[in-house]
User: Fold these one by one.
Assistant:
Number 1:
Amino acid sequence: MKVLVFGAGQLAQMMYLAAAPLGVEVYAVDVVAREVINPVDKSKFDMSIEYAVSDVHVITAEFEHVPEDLLDMAEKSGKLHPNMAAILTGADRVREKYVLDTNNIQNCPHLIVSDVSDLDAAVQALGEKIIFKASRDGYDGYGQWRLINSEELPKLKHAFASLDLKRVPLVAEKMLSFDREISIIGARDAKGNVCCFDIAENLHHEGQLHVSVAPATAVSAAVQKQAEQIFETLANALNYIGVLAVELFQSGDELLVNEIAPRVHNSGHWTQKGADTCQFEQHIRAVLGFPLGDTASKGVTAMINIIGCTSFSRDLISIPGCHLHWYGKEVREKRKMGHINVVADSYRELGEKLLLLLQYLPEEYFVLLRGEAQRLIAIEA
Amino acid sequence: MKVLVFGAGQLAQMMYLAAAPLGVEVYAVDVVAREVINPVDKSKFDMSIEYAVSDVHVITAEFEHVPEDLLDMAEKSGKLHPNMAAILTGADRVREKYVLDTNNIQNCPHLIVSDVSDLDAAVQALGEKIIFKASRDGYDGYGQWRLINSEELPKLKHAFASLDLKRVPLVAEKMLSFDREISIIGARDAKGNVCCFDIAENLHHEGQLHVSVAPATAVSAAVQKQAEQIFETLANALNYIGVLAVELFQSGDELLVNEIAPRVHNSGHWTQKGADTCQFEQHIRAVLGFPLGDTASKGVTAMINIIGCTSFSRDLISIPGCHLHWYGKEVREKRKMGHINVVADSYRELGEKLLLLLQYLPEEYFVLLRGEAQRLIAIEA
C-alpha cells in the first residue's frame, strides 16, 4: 500500500521508516518545490502530485501549514486523513480556539483581535500580561508579541497597525503561570477507537522543545484521566483519523490546552524506543485502517532534541539504551538536526544516563539537560 | 556516511532501515543484474558498482555467495567488512570446517569428499548415516544428499559420478542426534571488542527456519559461556568485523557448530523488537567503526517466519507486542515473505500470544507454531 505525505521533513522520514516493515511505501511531497520525493534519501520521483494523489491509498500531512490547494485536492480525492478541517484547525488559532470553546475544553482565557481597536478591550478582559499570537502562519515568521504592562500598549498598537488583522487576526491570550507543560499524543481510527500514549513532560527553551520525558513524572490518576478525556473529546469533535498531539499546561490537577497539532509530534518521538508501537507506525496504522497498536510504555524514556548543533560525539550511542536519530539536514541555527532517545528502567537510572550523555554533548546547546538529569536522579523509585 | 551492501534482499532492506537513523545511507548491489539499487523501494541508482565502491565508506554483504570478482574489487578498496576470507569461509563448507578444526571448535565429525572413491572411507569413518553437503553453491540448488543405510551407497555413487567433485567437493557429515538447534549472534569491531546477543532457540521444518525464541529457554551458565567462547574464538580467528552468526547443535551441555553465517541472520531478527540494539544496527555500527550497542534483551521474543504465504490476516498486529516485518516480495513456494516478532514479559505470556497469533494465520504454513506455543505456556515463570 502507498501513503502520500504532504511535507518531506523528518516526520515524513520517520513515517517512511516505520511504514516500510508493514509493507507500506511512503511518498512525500515537497510542498515548496511541488515535487514528489523519497523522504529518506530525498530522491525525486518522476511523477506529478496529481498522479501521486490518484495513485496512493491514503494521503496525510506531516505539518499543518500545507497550501490549501493541495489539501483541497487531497480532500476531494476522499483519501485525506486526518480530514482537511482538522488539519486547518491546527493551522489556525482562531479555528482551534473555536473548537476548544465549543467543546468546553479548558484553555487560556483569550480574545480574538481583528482590529487595533480591539486591543483595549483585550487588556480590560485579560489583564495587562498578554501574549498575542498570529492566528495563522501569515506574518513571515513573526508570530508572537508580548505585553508585560499596559504602558507598552501604544507601541504594540503601532506595530499591529501595519498588519492585515482582518486577514490574519491575532489571538490575545492571558499570560498564565503553570507548573509544567505536558502533552498527550494518541490515535483515533475510522471506527472511532481511541488509543493514547502515556503523557510526556516537555521542557522548552526559547520557544523550542528541548527535552521530553515519558511517562511524565508524578501524574495523578485524575490528571491522566482528564488528559485522555480532553484528547478523546477533541479527536471525536474533529472526526479525526490519525495521530493527534495535544499540548497542555498543568497547574496542580488542572489542565489547560495550549495548542493542538494534527499530526505526529516532536514530543512523541520518545515512543520510537519507549513504547510498544511508535507514533509513526501508529499514524500509518490509523490512516490505512489497520488495527491500532499497543501503546504501553517500556521503561522510562527521555527524548533530547539536537538543535542547531553538529559538534557532538556520535559515541554517545555507546551508552546502553541510548539511540540517535539523525535527520540528515544541513545545520542552521535553531534547526532541529536530530534527536536522542534514552531508555532506562527507572527515573533515577534515566537521570544518571543523561549525565553520562552530557559527556558527549556541548552543553551550551543542551542547556536544560543537566538540571533535568538532576531532577530525575532525585526521584524516588 | 554511506555503506554499500552486496545483495539487495530483505537483509539489506533491514540494514537500510536500521542505518537511516544513524545518518547512514545504505546502497545495495543486485549482484545478478549488477545494478546499484535502493534496497527498500528497489529504485535503481544511476551509478556503476565501480563508482559505488569508490564512493562509499564501507562495503559489506548480506549473503556469502557474492561473485568473487565483486568481493575482490571490494577487498582491494580496503573497505570490505567483514573481510573476503571471512565471507568465503561462510560460502565454502571446506573452508568452514578447516577454520573450525584448526581452532579446535567442536563440530560434526566429517570428511571431505572430492572423488567418488572417497565414499567408502567416509562410511567407514562416519558410519552409514551421513549427510553429504555441497561445499559451495555450485550444483544449481542441489545441495544435500542423505545416506540412511549403506545399501543405498551405490545409488549415491552413481549420482555423485556426474558431479565435478574436484571443483566443488562435498562435506560428508555424520548424522547426529541432538536436543535442539540454537544460534549465537554477535558483533566484533575493528578494535576486537566482541558483544553477543542472547542465544536463540531455532525450530526448523523441511530445512527452513520457522521459529526462533530468544533468549532461548533453559540455557545453563555453562552453555551460555561455551557459546560465547566459540563465538569469540571464531570471530578472532576470522579477524571478523561486523555481525556474525553461529548455528549450533546442543546435546545436554555439549555444543557442536553446525554452520557459520558471515552476516546478519534470520535467527537474529528477534533483536529488532527484543534487544536494545538490533542486529542490523549493530552490523552497521561495527563495520563503520561506531561503538557497539547494548545487546541486552527486553523481555522474551519469538520470531516467526512467513514462508510462501500471503493469505494471513494483517490484523495480527492488533496483538500487543506483535509486529510485522513484510519484505514486499512476490510470493513463491518456500520463499521467506516476511516475519513476525512477538514480545512478551514471560515465556508463558509469549506462548499465549502465539496461540492468539495462530487465529490470524493459516496453520498449514506455520506447522510448528502451536506446539511451540504449548511448550512455552508450560514453562514455569
Number 2:
Amino acid sequence: MLEKPRILDRKTVAQSRIFRVEALELEFANGALASYERLVGGEGGAVLVVPLIDTDTVLLIREYAAGRDAYELALPKGRIEANEDPLAAANRELMEETGHGARHLVHLTDFSVAPGYMTHLTQVILARDLYPQRMQGDEPEEIEVVPWALSRIDALVEREDFTEARSLAALYLTRDRLRDGRL
Amino acid sequence: MLEKPRILDRKTVAQSRIFRVEALELEFANGALASYERLVGGEGGAVLVVPLIDTDTVLLIREYAAGRDAYELALPKGRIEANEDPLAAANRELMEETGHGARHLVHLTDFSVAPGYMTHLTQVILARDLYPQRMQGDEPEEIEVVPWALSRIDALVEREDFTEARSLAALYLTRDRLRDGRL
C-alpha cells in the first residue's frame, strides 16, 4: 500500500456558478512538494444509464454538447440530486431523456473521468424492462433517441459524433457481461 | 443534420492557474434560450497511450491522482505541448512514465471526457515495439509500472483503484481490434 501524500494546504482559487477549483499543496512520502489544482464536483456525483431494450440493443441519445459545441451521441446521463438515490436518479434521467422508465435498475461500476484533476465519479447503471414514461427535464429542445446494437460498437467508434469515453466503456462492459452470461 | 444553437454571448467567468471557465448564452433552433458553463482546455489536448509489450499485455501505471486523492491504475497519459506532434507527445509520456520508448506509434481514436461541459479531447495512441528509454518528467515520485493482460480486463474493472473511463475504453478497443486482426 502506497502512502498518500499529505495535504499541507487546500483552498478555493476560482469559483463560477457550476465549477469550483481547489489548489492543493502536497508533500509526498519521499519529501517532494508539489502544487496541484483540481475541480471539485457536487457531493452526489452523476449517473450514466445503459438502457437495454433487448439483449443486443441500447438506447443512445443525440444532444447538444456545449463543451464540444456539437451534437453528440452518448448514453443518457445526469447529476444525482441532493439526497436522491442513484438508481432513482438513473430512472429519472432515463424518463427525461428517452421517454422510458425501467422496472429493473442495477449498479454496474463507477467511473472517474479525469482522476488526476477532478473529484467527480459517475455511477454506471444498467436499466432493463423499459416502459414508455416521459418526465419533463430542463432540456432546451427535444432529444433524439437512437437505438444502437451492442454488436456494432465498432461502427460507433468510427463516428465523429460519438466520442465520450464513459459511454464507450459502459457499452463494452455491458456487451462483455451479456456475452459471458453475467447479466 | 441538426442546426447548432447560436452562441449569443461567451465570456470567461472564472480562471485559475490551470482552468478557465467560460459562460455561454445560447439560442437553440427552436428559439429556446439557455445558459451553459464549460471548461476550456489548452489548444493541444492530451494523449492516452496504450503500450503493448506483447499481443495480450499492456503497461499500466500506478500514480497519485489528486482529483480522487488516491493512487490509481491507468494508462500513461499527458498533455500535448505547444507545437508538439501527438505521436511524439505519446512517446515522451511513455518514456517519462514507464521508462520505455516505442518504435511504432499509431493513432486509434479520439475520446472526449465530458463533452457537455469540457472542450477537451484525448487522442488514443497505440505504442508497440517498446525499448528501454527513460526521460525525466515532472513527476514528484517514482511511478510504478504494472503489466496487465488484456484477457483480464474484467478483473481490472473490479478493482477499486482502477476507475478511469478513458483507460478502460481504450483497453477494450485495443483488445477487440487485436482479436479481430485489425491491429
